[in-house]
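The freezer alarm interrupted the setup, so I double-checked each line after restarting. Inputs confirmed:
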Amino acid sequence: MPSDVRIAPSILAADQLRLGEQIRSIECADYVHFDVMDGMFVPNLTFGPGLLAQVKATCGLPVDAHLMIREPDRRFQAYLDAGADILTFHYEAQLHAHRTVRAIKDGGALAGIALNPGTPVSVLESLIDELDMVLVMSVNPGFGGQSFIEGTYGKLRQVRRMAEEHGVSPMVEVDGGIGVANAEAVVRAGADVLVAGSAVFGAQDPAAAVGEMRAAGRRGLPGGR
Ligand code: DX5
Ligand code: ZN
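Predicted 3D structure, all chains:
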C-alpha cells in the first residue's frame, strides 16, 4: 500500500493566458500534470512538446505528462526530449504497449499506462511488472470539470490487488473529478497520486487547495495521517 499521497494539479484547468503565474502558484504540489490531447484519440486539442519544455524551464516540479493521443509509440519521443519525467499513454491508443513502455524507460522517463473507464484492469496482467505508474481514468478523457465515475473505486482496488499479486508497487494515479470530497476515498481504494484540475485552479487559493487535498488524501492511508 502507498506510504504517502502526491498531488498533481492539471494545468488544463489553469488560466492559459497566465500560465507561468498559475504554475508558480502550485509549487507546493508534487507534479505538474500535463494533458496532451490530439483531437483524434479524444475530441479536444491541447498542448504539445514545445509548451512542455517551457513548463519544465519555468518550474522545479517534475512533469507528469498524460498522452491522450493516437499512436503514442510513434510520437512519445518528442515529449521525452522536451523533458517529461513521467510519460503515460493510453492502453486503448496503440498496439504495442509493452514495447512502448520499454522505449519510454530506455529514454530515461518513468512509464505509465492509462485506462479509460470502459477498459478493464485485466489488460494490465502482462504489463504491470514493467510499469512505474498505472493511471486509472475516473472520467472519460477529453475535458476537465466532469463528474467522478463511482466504479473507479473498484478498479483502484483491482490495480492494487494485481500489483500485490505480482510483487510490484507502481504509483497508482487517479484522474478526473477529484477534489477534497473524494480524496480520502480514492486513497483508501489504492490511489497514491491524485490529479486535480478544476479543484485546484478553480479555487481562490490553488496552493491551499493542494494542501487540503493532500491532507484529505492522507486520511485514507493505512492508519490515517
Ligand atoms: C481529462 C484530463 C484530466 C483533467 C482533470 O481528460 O486527463 O487531467 O484535467 O480535470 P478535473 O480535475 O477538472 O476533472
Ligand atoms: Zn490527465
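Quick read of the result. The pocket of D-xylitol-5-phosphate (ligand 1) is lined by residues 10, 12-13, 33, 35, 66, 139, 141-142, 144-146, 175-178, 195-199 (CB under 6 Å).
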